[in-house]
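Re: the pair you flagged

First of the two:
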Amino acid sequence: MSLLLRNGLLLDVTTGTYAEADLRCADGRIAETGHGLTAPDGTRVLDLAGAHVVPGLIDAHVHVTASTADLGSIGSMAPSYVTAHSARIMSGMLDRGFTTVRDASGADFGLADAQAEGLVRGPRLLFCGKGLSQTGGHADFRGRGEHLRDDHPCCAGLGRVADGADAVRAAARDELRKGAHHIKVMASGGVASPTDRIDSTQYSMDELRAAVEEAEAANRYVAAHAYTARAVNRALEAGIRSIEHGNLIDDVSVELFLRNDAFLVPTLVTYWALKEEGRSFGLPEGSLRKVDEVLGAGLAALERAARGGVRLVYGTDLLGGMHRHQNHEFRLRCEVQRPIDVLRSATTVAAELAGLAGEIGTLAAGAHADLLVLDADPLADAGVLADPGHIRHVVQAGAIA
């Protein structure tokens, strides 16, 4: 199947410049760009009449199985029920222009395979399986009065508990065995977990390094949930490649990001959404009280990181019915960043983090033919990407989605 787009303004995200040209897709890839391109018989041809064309977007922190903000309840749901919800959530993400997403715990090889085979409509899915947590950590959803734990090896819970370097090593190997693109560890407390503190550090340095060693042995990497500078800095010193959230980083954190060639994945929109709508979508009262601890600090952390030259990646971390706000992250980030820099975070920089530079997040020949046709210039108006209504066409793997 082939597709020819004529007379588009094609964005080179790296340089931030447009070129008026045609773009031809074949066999799921961008075959060529240029003027006056021809295509074989049977090719679908669209005249874009000067519309703006950008690479398909990448959201590097999603939870496609999170049909509710009550994350602890997901593990006890039937896998078939979770899958049905995930298919709906993923389809919505594709409609919003996200052609690749990195799941930060919950999704597995089954959903990724289903999407790749066309059984589920949605973005390409880079998954980590279950996130690794210490007892009482961010993926231990037991209340204080619960003793027994079920890590739901068959089912769709978001995490598994592993204590001690050997147990962490075994858990990481198990997720890698199942095809994980990266390993997720919980290196600090969080909003959705019932018994930990936001300002806690989680996992010893030996445990963090065990996860890193196993990921690197498999040519993969580790992403760490972490909020405070203390937690972030420990994770970076342990060799972790991407920090998720990082709302309370300091200047030392910035130095460590640069020294260790690491990435920061802020998720500003989820705190905005949880504050506005969390209670309606199942967020427990105890978790609601934690939101204020990280809400105000997020923009300041983003500004500090951007000013210091940290590589920033687009992420949203939305839950339940709040997934519909996925594009609003563009508007929030543009309060401190230029639109081109936010777009890079959702294309070229995200691709680099995922180890897929040149494959996604670009309109270069040879890349996956994932792109958006927009009715306005996203570099002139941050609201263009913040509002999916500006998307005229989503092209995924060379076909109109």
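Second of the two:
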Amino acid sequence: MTKVSMTVNGKAVSRETEGRTLLVQFLRDGMGLTGTHVGCDTSQCGACVVHVDGVPVKSCTVFAADVAGGHVTTIEGMANADGTMGRLQQAFQDCHGLQCGFCTPGMVMSAAALLAVNPTPTEAEIRAGLEGNICRCTGYHNIVRAVMQASGQASAAVAAE
């Protein structure tokens, strides 16, 4: 067992864990942050995307010990301070950018990373930025609309329909 310490959603945490513990397991099982989903376990689906030091990573392929000392943001950390949904989460709801919701946390985290580097992406840039996140329900159209709305381009997203 190894003691792993990191900052998760702005709070310092330390847990005893096995060296082989994946970050997704550390978050879900060790901390109860079940918003990060385990989909494929092979880095294909993107349901487990979190931010590590501001960079989106698929947490099913990273050992928790490798993130020691880092700053992790999960979907739970995307909410406003008062617990209400953040701008991007609200846009996903408003634009119905989800159906079953399984891929939604990873989509939101990948979209947030995209908007951090490109605040007003085009539809093509959004689709490229979400590559690596699989949704089996929505057809992606409403997900793209949600990202456009969150970026302040709601009128462009509606006009494109």
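Strands lie at 2-8, 11-17, 49-52, 55-58, 71-73.

-B.
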